[in-house]
Known about the structure:
[4Fe-4S] cluster binds at residues 112, 116, 119. The protein is 37% helix and 19% strand. By secondary structure, the protein is of the alpha/beta class. Iron/sulfur cluster binds at residues 112, 114-116, 119, 121-122, 163-165, 198.
Amino acid sequence: MNKSSVYGLTLNQLIAWLGERGHKKFRAAQVWDWLYRKRVTDFAEMTDVHPECVRLLSEHFAISVLIEHLRQESADGTIKFLFKLTDGNLIETVLMRHKFGLSVCVTTQVGCNIGCSFCASGLLAKSRDLSAGEIVGQIMKVQLHLDQAGRGEKVSHIVVMGIGEPFDNFVNMTDFINVVKDHKGLAIGARHITVSTSGLAGKIIEFADSDLNVNLAISLHAPNDELRTRIMKINRAIPLNQLMQAIDYYLEKTKRRITLEYILLKDVNDRTEHALELAELVGHRRPLANVNLIPYNPVDEHSQYQRSEQESITAFYDTLKKQGVSCSVRLEHGTDIDAACGQLRSKQIKQSIG
Ligand code: SF4
């Protein structure tokens, strides 16, 4: 049977696991340091950890359970990794370089059931959730890649925006965040971590009530129910008024800013009337909301959608600004490789099938 990854344990879980087997707390701290500070890839390298503890760990766990299957590097420094899981499934992880640091976009599920009509990832239905160890493993694989390059670079930001709906894998996502945030390990600041959801209202409330304290982004993509249901079928189950109520709860509870993601699709949701409607929807939330406009990366399978003209993007942005809505246009990364989320993975799967 395949062993699960030790990366899936939070520090408290590791302390408890070793404690149940008679090992004191400091042993867990030693192991944690070897995993996340010294970043060894074999338990046998944990030279100052008691041999019995090393034996126990290697008997029950693997360190990483991901194998690098493919890597695409863009001229702008973006790297797309395709990792193979122990069950043969492929997942995609992206490293992006920004002025403010290095961010990694992680995947939380194998496929996705939300079925947004513009998305390459959603073309393949969810076959399973990723374990916390498989999500942490993506960050560690990227960090080890940076370590090997020898420039002392460190992953500084994480966006949970890859394949899957993170709130549909809530417990594993929560463990993942607690592992990467831990100040004795990777120590990635809570303000440097963003989770993006398609709008699972109940989970937004649970997230607001949690002590994760990381950033939240909502995939909004349309300013009214009719259009949003057309683009995102999740809107049928959770319409905008329910979503906005959950957002209000989150804002009230956390007092933290929120990002509203808006993918611009030519002649679908990119007209001035849509920008005006969006400004109205943002309404009283203006001080705590930022709209992130995302120029669409076309994918072959969704030929009904095209990228908005540059004039439309500028006009949309200007309209929101004039309405007092804080907004930005997302900088693009890796346009010379398979830039759309999930594109590399779906291409590979198609090639292997076909
Ligand atoms: S955009 Fe996100 S939530 Fe929607 S189908 Fe794609 S991966 Fe799933």
